Structure of methylmalonate-semialdehyde dehydrogenase (CoA acylating):
Amino acid sequence: MSTSKASPTVKLLINGEFVESSTTEWRDVVNPATQEVLARVPLATAQEIAAAVAAAKSAFKTWRKTPIGARARIFLKYQQLIRENMKELAALLTAEQGKTLADAEGDIFRGLEVVEHAANIGSLQMGEIANNVASGVDTYTLQQPIGVCAGITPFNFPAMIPLWMFPMAIACGNTFVLKPSEQDPMVTMRLVELALQAGIPPGVLNVVHGGEHVVNAICDHPDIKAVSFVGSTKVGTHVYHRASQTGKRVQCMMGAKNHAIVLPDANKQQALNNLLGAAFGAAGQRCMALPVTVLVGEANDWIPELVEKARALKISGGVEPGTDIGPLISCAAKERVESFIASGVASGAKLELDGRQPDVPGYAGGNFVGPTIFSGVKPGMAIYDQEIFGPVLCLVPAATLDEAIAFLNANPNGNGTAIFTQSGAAARKFQEEVDAGQIGINVPIPVPVPLFSFTGSGASKLGDLGPYGKQVILFYTQTKTITARWFDDSSVAGPVNTTISLK
């Protein structure tokens, strides 16, 4: 914990004002490539958290009545501002998170797509009507906002995942309290500034920073009606159970161990290149990465070429042109990944490529781990059973597609998966039989576009409804069903029946 006063401070956002926290507890925001301290982030006090929720609760009274077109126009303006500031946002993200500039722009762009979807709220937040369900009786539904919602976001996508959350919640007429990762909150705060510039009123969006105590406060606060979470399985499980016990709606997107299957009929070069990007891009720090690949039959002969391609990837700070892999988020993350690699060797897996202690000119203090490949990986090894969250690829042999599918389905996680093949029959069999939420066919990271919903399954998800897309409209709204009968003056009054017959 830092006590230095030299670095700039990250502010809280409460009721439309960026305010300096009164806390005595601060954390350094560190450039993971250079160890330079970029800023200091506060761990918000209980009073500040309460003030943020109170501002959101108060703002909800008027925001919920804001015409749907007015809400949509704010997000039309917001997407324009994000586009205009893309280079600045990407540079900020790279400095604090370590992604390459290309990866950083991709992070922002995938969030931008959800902002654009939020601008379409007028055609999304519509109810249904059935006319004349009985004599003179109509039944219809309204999709109304639920109140104060909250989001807890991780370090690995500090632009995309906040943009998955607050735009859709706010577009639906709710107000929002966001808790970004304290490891890299700066790009999130810049996006928040642009959201206010786009016209989001005071109190509709609020931001608090901190660790476990802020998470617990969000789970416990009686005025928060829904919580959205993306992060580790351990924390997500805690959030789901704690927030659910207080009657909140909760959606938790958690850990993963995604698998790819490569059949020998696949386009070899495209498959190998896609595996490299999916396993090692963003230094492996994404829940939709492909850290496990099952090579079927003769595809096992491709291992040497895969290793050579991985060896040629460029490791550097994210700002250098042509960089393929940047640093891990922290020194602790680097040590954790290195310990997994050591355990893989100790457990008997074959280390085809060792990425430990790479030579990265100009970045002697950076948190770098290079591409690492193991073959002969089996369940029971820590490198297979646990989410490494680093640039480590585990290769598993299989004799047939059936064997490969059975292997995938035995894993408890179900975020995403992919198959590489030129066989339509094999691809169809795979999509029908595999147990995972997002499925790619010759697509390595099948994160759905916002017209659809993120649909992780198994141990990777708690809660029925996913973030963004059609499902999140249901998550952020309350369905009211109205049954109505109107009488004209010529109607004959009679006994009031408490049950309307539909016969």
About this structure: The first helix runs from residue 46 to 63. The CA atoms of residues 234 and 254 lie 8 Å apart. DSSP finds 16 helices and 22 strands in the chain.
